[in-house]
Amino acid sequence: MPAAVQRGGRVLLWGLAAGLPLLFLGVFFAWPVVTLIARGFVTQDAAGASLDLSGFAEVFSEPRTWRIIGLTLWQGVLGTVISVLLGVPGAYVLYRCRFRGRTFLRAFVTVPFVLPTVVVGVAFRSLLVEGGLLGFLRLDGTFGAIVLALVFFNYSVVVRTVGGLWEHLDPRAEEAARALGASPWRAFRSVTLPSLAPAIASAASIVFLFCATAFGVVLVLGGVQYGTIETEIWIQTTQFLDLRAAAVLSVVQLVVVVVALSVANRTRARRERALNLSAATSAARPLRLRADAVPLAVTAVVVLGLIALPLVNLLVRSFQTPGGWSLANYANLGTTGGRNALSVTVWEATANSVRTAAIATLIAVVIGGLVALVVSRRPRSRTGRRAISALDSVFMLPLGVSAVTVGFGFLITLDKPLGLDVDLRTSGLLVPVAQAVVAIPLVVRTVLPVLRAIDPRLREAAATLGAPPARVFAAVDGPIAARSLGLAIGFAFAVSLGEFGATSFLARPDAATLPVVIFRLIGRPGAENYGMALAASVVLAVLTATVMMVAERLRGDRSAGEF
User: Fold this and answer.
1) Is 316 contained in some domain?
2) 481 CB-contact burial (10 Å; exposed 0-12 / middle 13-18 / buried 19+)
3) What positions does the domain ABC transmembrane type-1 occupy (predicted)?
4) Is residue 336 within 8 Å of 345, Cβ to Cβ?
5) Of 62, 102, 180, 401, which is most buried, counting CB atoms within 10 Å of its CB?
6) Strand 285-286 vs strand 97-98: parallel, antiparallel, or unpaired?
7) DSSP assignment, residue 321?
8) Residue 296 domain flag
9) CB atoms < 10 A from the CB of 346, how many?
10) Apex CA 449: angle with CA 447 and CA 452, to 5°?
11) Same domain as 334, residue 188
12) From CA 108, how far away is CA 115, in angstroms rounded?
């Protein structure tokens, strides 16, 4: 085959691989978000449309705005600091040490990260409410309860990100420092900690992003009193229909997200270079009870007190009724609740959730896989490297942009997208598409490190032997990427099951998903509805945990993925 034809085919294939995800992101993310924001800044008068930026001055002149921004940043900083301080000892125990049950504990601490935010909120509220196990602490409805729930949610991000690097660090440098008389703490501080710095910084930037953009947790635990930018966008959009204020806040949130993503990209690049220099095999050693007593004690307190306790309490409370212990709350899941609080039963909502999550997962894996494949390339030119970095950052934006903004943007833009004679708002496809937009970044971050770990000389050798791009992918990239596919599918499915922000806007009452149903039950009076919310939360928690346990079991590459 002539070289010119091969080059043309290669350009066409890579153009399609990059163009399809960009088209998807443009139609189902950028267009709705930009349209919603534009409606807040564009005014219509007799002379036509005009740009009006006076909303910034109006919104920022309100003391409430600065209080909300301050709470958002403070909650992000506090949640990040505590997550890192608790997560680093956990990373050491679960990745640097070997002991029986380590694989199970790794999977167990991952469960909170994929739990729906509504379930996390319900779990902590049932624990901290008056009459709950920790009700005497009087933390219900406080800022401290929100921070605890955010640490619960993000602890595994630090453990997995830092542990993935720590597991492969060459131990000889630390052993040499100890041999020269350094204490364990000094050897860690002067040798190990600088090597872990890229992973810690990468984890911290991602955790800050998740903490600052939390929606369901803050809505359930804090309500209006401890609102964040995310919840304020929801209030301004749904209760006051003030698109101008929502647009200003969306821009503020976008600035925070871009800064956090910029830091994450820089630290992630340093982390990947550190991984390339580390040992190929695990440097984990047997757990020593005396020498490892401090990190072991910290990890035990976190796993038992912060992670297991809310989940166990949620399970126990789901069997409590005003008449005593029984299965009545679970039996009521087949009804529409007290005073017909719901339009569908919880079991019907569960079926809706599974069906939409399956469709969303398929979309997310296809689009996210293509993004990871393109971004994993290493162009020789500086322009090419910058383009790859920009593409990577663009597809991380859905993690931080308000899901409320995306959901409401869908409603006002996707009546007939691209001139198609179909109204997506009534087609049933809108919810899985919105869930896929949220899940794509997680698929990319799971698959991308595996693809970037491939030695480029393998691809070059295959191409030199005459293999076309499709054959190179099938022979080199495909088999290696498949190692992380099970975990990517698990993350996408679990996150889609629990997506609440955009789904709360888009799900029709007769096709409500499980997180939406749980939130509606919480907001309805009566012990029957609250008991059903607890039982439904257990069902959703078990479902997502099972998905992640299976994904971990099927996982081929134990070092795959950033999360």
Assistant:
1) no
2) buried
3) 69-264, 350-551
4) yes
5) 401
6) parallel
7) E
8) no
9) 26
10) 110
11) no
12) 11
Structure tokens at 458: 């393998």
Give the residue from 352, 83, 435, 65 showing the smallest Cα distance to 233.
Answer: 65
CB 144, CB 306: distance < 8 Å: no
Give 481's contacts (C-beta < 8 A, 6+ positions apart): 369, 372, 373, 447, 450, 451
The residues pairing with 97 across neighbouring beta strands, listed in sequence order, are 285
Q: Let me know: does 318 contact 326? Beta carbons within 8 Å.
A: no
Residue 133 lies in a domain: yes
Q: 204 and 162 in one domain?
A: yes
For residue 43, tell me if it sits in a domain. Answer: no
| CATH, residue 201 | 1.10.3720.10
0.85 surpassed by pTM: no
Tens of pLDDT, residue by residue, the chain (563 residues): 555 555 655 667 777 878 899 999 988 888 888 887 787 777 766 566 677 778 788 888 888 889 999 999 999 999 999 999 999 999 999 988 888 888 888 878 888 887 878 888 888 988 988 888 888 888 888 888 999 999 998 999 999 889 888 887 777 777 787 787 878 788 888 888 888 888 888 889 889 988 888 877 888 887 667 778 888 888 887 788 787 888 888 888 878 877 877 777 676 665 555 554 444 455 677 888 787 889 999 999 999 999 999 999 999 999 988 888 999 999 999 998 888 888 899 999 999 999 999 999 999 999 998 888 888 777 777 777 777 777 877 887 787 677 777 887 887 787 665 555 566 666 778 889 989 998 998 888 888 877 776 766 766 676 676 666 667 666 666 676 676 788 888 889 988 988 887 887 788 888 889 998 998 898 888 889 989 999 999 999 889 888 877 877 766 544 445 55
